[in-house]
Structures are given as C-alpha cells and as structure tokens.
Amino acid sequence: MNWNVYKMFKNGKRAKAPMAVFELDGDEREAETYFRSIILENFNEKNRGSDFSILRADLPQERIDPNKKNNEILRKQVLVLAKAARKKNITHSRKTTTGLMFASATYWKWQWCILESGTNNFVAGLSPRFDNSVEADKWMNQQIKNLK
C-alpha cells in the first residue's frame, strides 16, 4: 500500500501536496518508523528538521483546519456577549471589546466584561462574577447552548 508524506507547517497546517510517496505493507506505526529511518535520510538538511504527517494514500486526504473549532467557539462567545450588552443597553464613547476579566473592577472575581479596546479598561460587566475561570467558562458554555 502507498503512503503519502506531507510537510506540517509551524502554524499547524499541512501542505497541499505530498512531499514524498512510498510503498509499504504495514500499519501507521510501521510506516512512521520506515519513513524516519529510510525516507527522511534522503531529504535535504532543511526539510529533515520539519514535522511530517503520514497518511495512507487510499484514505481521504482532506486537510483539517486546527483553528476551525476554536473560531466557531469564539464566534458564539461574541454572539452571547453582544446579546448581553444589548440587553443592558451599554454605550461607551470609545471603541470596545469583550473578554473574561479578573481585576479590582470585578472585585477580584472572574467576569465576562466589556472592555476599552487597546487599554482593556473595565467598562461594564456582562455576566455574574465567578470564583474561578472554570465556572465562568461553564456559564459561557451554558449561554452558548441557550442561543437560538
């Protein structure tokens, strides 16, 4: 069976085309061992230090974006916090952002807040205050589940 060798970039993404293809009857572990001991030796010095992904050629070769899931979670968090800000009718003269804050303005508790962009100064609280960030994340996850 054929195995495709893809270069992995520092940002976590995989190259579109394989750098090498080799034939070996065996499982993934054996293919990895064969690649590291035989094939990698033929690469130039620069590429030998890279990370690689080895996939069976007969399986799907789609590239998975490692940041896609995180981006979706962040998008939903923004929706939750924007909805909370609209409910409280909060306006501010400067540009704002949102975030989870632990500071004197939140009485040294964790709270999802509106913050001034650039300075991260507290503008208003959007959630209850929590004793730890895990509780704040649980609250956020519950709010995301309640989105319609």
Structural class: alpha+beta
Poorly predicted sequence stretches spanning 5 or more consecutive residues: none
H and E string: EEHHEHEEEH
Question: What would you report as the Rg, rounded to the nearest angstrom?
Answer: 24 Å
Distance between the termini: 48 Å
Number of structural domains: 2
- Please outline the major beta sheet: 3 strands, antiparallel
Which outline best applies?
elongated
Instruction: Give me the side-by-side strand order of the main sheet.
Output: 2-1-3
What is the overall number of helices?
A: 4
Q: Could you tell me the mean pLDDT?
A: 89
Give helix % range.
Answer: 25-40%
Count of beta strands? 6
Oligomer: single chain
Considering the chains and any ligands shown, give keywords for the structure.
148 residues; alpha+beta; 2 domains; 3-stranded antiparallel beta sheet; 34% helix
Can you summarize this structure?
This protein is an alpha+beta fold and 148 residues long. 34% of the residues lie in helices and 25% in strands.
Description of the structure:
With 148 residues, the protein is of the alpha+beta class. The chain folds into 2 domains: 2-56, no CATH class; 68-145, no CATH class. Helices cover 34% and strands 25% of the residues. The protein has helices at residues 28-39, 45-48, 68-88, 133-145; strands at residues 2-8, 20-23, 51-56, 96-103, 109-116, 122-125. The strands form 2 sheets. The protein has a 3-stranded antiparallel beta sheet, with helices on one face. The protein has a 3-stranded antiparallel beta sheet with strand order 4-5-6. Strand 4 (96-103) and strand 5 form a beta hairpin. The termini are far apart. The mean pLDDT is 89.
